[in-house]
Amino acid sequence: MFRYNYLSKFHRNIKLLFMVIILITFYINIQADDAFQVFKKVYDSDGWENGQHIYKTLDGGYLIGGVHIPANSSDYHPYLLKLKPDWSVDWLNLYGEFSCDYCSFTQVCDDESYAIAGQYFNPDSSSLDIFLIKVDYLGNVVQSYTYDYAGDQVVRTFRKTPDGGFLVGGRWIYDSFLMKMDRDFNPVWINILGGSELDHIYACQVASDSEFVAAGYTMSYGMGDADLLLVRLSLDGQIKSAEAIGSANREAVSGDKGLYLTRDGGVIMAGYNNINDANGNDFLLVKVDAAGAVQWAKTYGGYGVDNGFMGEETSDSGFVMVGYSSSFSPQFYDGYMLKTDKSGTLEWSKAYGTENSNEVMGCVLQDSANSLIFSGGSDGYGSRDQGIFVVKTDSAGNSGTVDKSVESITREPELAVTPIADLELQLIYKEIIEFPISATSIDAADISVYTISSDWIGRNNPNPVPEEFDLKQNYPNPFNPVTTIEYSIPRNSYVTLRIYDITGQEIKTLINDNLIPVGNYEIEWDGKDNNGNAVASGTYFYQLETEGYIKARKMIHVK
Fold first, then answer.
1. Would you say residue 48 lies in a domain?
2. N or C: lower Cβ tally within 10 Å for the chain?
3. Residue by residue, what is the 3-state secondary structure of 94-161?
4. Nearest CA among 140, 114, 115, 141 for reference residue 130
5. Does 463 lie in the same domain as 407?
6. Is residue 262 domain-shared with residue 404, that is, in the same domain?
7. How far is the first Cα of the chain from the last one, in angstroms, to the nearest whole number?
């Protein structure tokens, strides 16, 4: 009898050891996409910059594009700023000896190259012409062309297409236009769309393998001073449907990413609406279903000027929108970001900036389910003129500094849909011209980086520098609903901290392969999973992993 009990216990221990080995192996190989470093940074060279677009690159870093004005100059030059995964400067290049317009647009290509589109002043014709530049992953120019057509062409949107080509849109004299190019920048077709007044495309997207969608504003059609313009086209440039959506006021899409395709086949248009009487504009979000009907329309803001440039669907099917606002600072503009649920109901809104400077948000990127990144411009925080403003926040918009949670007023304007049956269409084609462009590199040492905050969603413990990696037992344990986990990093390291249930399934990623400086840290877990749901009572494991070090501990959640 004694021998039977001993063997049963021995077998149980062997089984438990085997499960632990499987769990550890599973932990090592499991992946997550969450990130919890939050901060505000300004990248400032000897000149003026705006961060109009931000993208994640294939190497885990980031690419910011926009325009640069050198010191003591009034000429605008397109630039690309490449950042490493730890947000340090990889390279910064300016392109061309010409003067471009305020806006330039960037795309990250599948072959690790980058493309830039915009317009420049052609002194030979005294007009604005389109330019396109393709650079390799180091920023060296590979191709550059210009397109010399009659009249002014103003580029306002630039997008990759599934065939490796590109779609460019904007304004052609007084009409809107879309231009389809192949991967070598050869025009496939150019579509000019418009009526008797000013029409302008500001955003375009590839809706499916059978159509393009474009949005902007129209003064030729609709209800008021300007209405939203929504156009669907076939891949060969033929109009499938066109609508003016608006009220007696002015509504407009005003940013390259002011059009977003939703998972249900509809679209979100982001821009502004002047429903706020004579005091200024409000942010505008409009949800249109796949049939072209308005599902809801809402405005957000205060009693100043609130202009939205971009809306994007988030992982929880809600929406985030960025721009700038004068409603919450008496004399200056703040960067302004808000989050809604899938029905447009406001969840939170925040203003980012200082008391004596102007900040503008131009683009937002959802880096993970729990992280948002936006880029723009700031003339504060020590910048010499205006620097590139980059803010990384958690999913609630917190940047680790004193951000202003603001009371945004939500309104629901009544928007009418006016089908456009007689939208004029002209298809034209013209040869392209080689346009030699040089790249001027700015040494990384000449770029000042001001870090206003770097917070790892926890507190940096001011204890002495640790001598070794360590993961301490959480406290309290058992816990409900919040517990604290302490860990030590003896040297700057990429760190991952995850939580698993007893079966080895990942429950929560607290830190995902982030570069953390040397120090002692503590971080809280609120008993919720990656989707924000409260976990059940039971036993859980938390594991710290970094270079050459893996350690796991057990904790118990009770209710």
1. no
2. N
3. EECCCCEEEEEEEEECCCCCEEEEEEEEECCCCEEEEEEEEECCCCCEEEEEEECCCCCEEEEEEEEC
4. 115
5. no
6. yes
7. 40
Residue from 280, 226, 271 nearest 250 by CA: 226
- Provide DSSP, 167-220: EEEEEETTEEEEEEE-TTS-EEEEEEEE-SS-EEEEEEEE-SSSEEEEEEEESS
Of 379, 413, 447, at which residue does a domain stop? 413
**Domain span at 502:** 2-32+456-557
Using CA atoms, how far apart are residues 219 and 227, in angstroms rounded to an integer?
7
Contacts of 258 (CB under 8 A, 6+ apart): 202, 203, 215, 269, 270, 271, 308, 309, 310, 311
Q: Which helix (H) or strand (E) holds 16?
A: helix 2-29
Residue of 37, 28, 30, 33 whose CA lies nearest to 530: 33
How far is C-alpha 389 from the chain's CA centre?
13
Strands (E), 404-518: 404-405, 409-411, 416-419, 424-428, 433-434, 439-442, 448-455, 459-461, 470-471, 483-489, 493-501, 506-516
| Predicted confidence (pLDDT) at residue 367 exceeds the cutoff of 60 | yes
316 and 460 part of one domain? no
Structure tokens belonging to residue 542: 């938390």
- Please write the tens of the pLDDT for every residue from 66-89: 888 887 777 788 889 999 988 899
Residue 19's CATH number: 2.60.40.4070
**Per-residue pLDDT tens for 498-523?**
999 988 899 999 988 776 767 788 88
396 and 542 part of one domain: no
pLDDT of residue 555: 94
